[in-house]
Amino acid sequence: MVKWVLAVPHYIVLFFLWTAFAVVSVMAFFAILFTERYPRPLFDFNVSVLRWSWRVPCYAYGALGTDQYPPSGLGPDCSYPAQLDVACPERLYRGLVLMKWWLLAIPHCLVIGFFAGSVRGGVIGMLALVTVVTLAFRALPACR
């Protein structure tokens, strides 16, 4: 019941990391546009932020994946159950970097919006609520 409170320090740090993520992504956009390569330090930072952002909800009711407290830090941690690894692409196409962020993302954002968010919490929020209520009542002893 208090896992979300324990995750608050992670969410505070992640707020600042996501701000840096946005800046680094803009830098990576121009680097890919001019060189057709994703600079490795920028790629590693962005993947590290995504990795940490995956660990925290996996612990704190986003995915209900583990009871192990998420590690702090941007590096990989093989002992933690929630893992995220992304392979760095060797070469990217300049034309796609101009189209991916808006044209190809529109259908993806619509589907994610349907599942993850809406005024009432989306499909995932509703399913999580049903799961929590079901688990709460199944844990109670049967009255006879």
What does this structure look like?
By secondary structure, this protein is mainly α. The chain folds into two domains: 1-92, no CATH class; 94-144, no CATH class. It is built from five helices and no strands. Helix 2 runs antiparallel to helix 3 (40-59), helix 2 runs antiparallel to helix 4 and helix 4 (94-116) packs across helix 5 (122-138). The longest helix has 28 residues, at 8-35. The protein is globular, with a radius of gyration of 19 Å.
Ends: how far apart? 28 Å
**Helical region count?**
5
Characterize the largest beta sheet: strand count, sense, and whether it forms a barrel: none
Q: State the domain count.
A: 2
Number of DSSP strands? 0
Question: Which band does the percent of strand residues land in?
Answer: under 5%
The string of secondary-structure elements, in order, is HHHHH
How helical, in percent, are the residues?
Answer: 55-70%
Taking all Cα atoms into account, the compactness measure Rg is 19 Å
What would the average pLDDT be, to the nearest integer? 83
Specify the structural class: mainly alpha
Shape: globular
Indicate the low-confidence ranges by residue numbers: none
